[in-house]
Design a protein that fits this description.
Helix content is 52%, strand content 0%. It has helices at residues 3-16, 23-36, 45-60. The chain starts with a helix and ends in a 25-residue tail after the last helix.
Length: 85
């Protein structure tokens, strides 16, 4: 995970939790998640870190409603897999 990706994740989550948590708390959680997920595939790391960090930050701020997270499209959809083709 590049430092640039790491900063983007921190920026997005800081904005999302702006009124509830200081930026330093977000940085700490994102860093911890980055360390825990270090063996994950590099291309997936930014998204995995962001998702895990968001869950951890939500645990720290239970009074906030969970943001709507759009589901990821399956890479197999539209390629004949699972459609009897």
């Amino acid at each position: 995970m590049s430092d640039e990706s790491f900063i983007y994740v921190i920026d997005r989550l800081t904005a999302e939790f702006d009124n509830s948590l200081p930026r330093l708390a977000v940085v700490d959680v994102v860093h911890e998640c980055r360390v825990q997920l270090c063996c994950s595939p590099a291309p997936a790391l930014p998204e995995l870190v962001e998702r895990l960090a968001r869950l951890r930050l939500q645990e720290l701020t239970p009074e906030l409603p969970a943001p709507l997270i759009r589901p990821l499209a399956s890479p197999l959809v539209g390629h004949g897999v699972g459609h009897g083709v």
